[in-house]
Amino acid sequence: MCCFVLQVQRCLQSTQPVPAARLPYRVKLSAGKRYAWCACGHSKKQPFCDGTHKAKAPSISPLLFTADKNKTVMLCACKQTKNSPYCDGSHLKVIYRDVVKYVKGLFK
């Protein structure tokens, strides 16, 4: 029975990031302030880390960064960007994938 509980817990943990949202977050950053961008997608304080990854995605750590100046940026919410933590437009692929999945579901 103990092995079963461990196996179930392992299944509930993510090894891949999950999209927190389909569109990026517009965020005002303050110069010199340190931020922890959620890389796993499980945080309830998106786009920033709230520590949820420790239980839900222990293999995925937040990205720590410091803003070099006061500025407004678009931070990735789909977690697929190649330019973490900033949006690079990858959410368009996520949206397309979701639409294709939905359309295929209509014909089942």
From TrEMBL:
Keywords for the protein's UniProt record, in alphabetical order: 2Fe-2S, Iron, Iron-sulfur, Metal-binding
Gene Ontology cellular component terms for the protein in this record: mitochondrion
Residues annotated as domain Iron-binding zinc finger CDGSH type: 22-59, 60-97
GO terms, molecular function: 2 iron, 2 sulfur cluster binding; metal ion binding
Residues spanning the signal sequence: none
SMART domains to which the protein is assigned, alphabetical: ZnF_CDGSH
Cofactors demanded by this protein: [2Fe-2S] cluster
Xref: Pfam families: zf-CDGSH
Name of this chain's protein: Iron-binding zinc finger CDGSH type domain-containing protein
Lineage: Eukaryota, Metazoa, Chordata, Craniata, Vertebrata
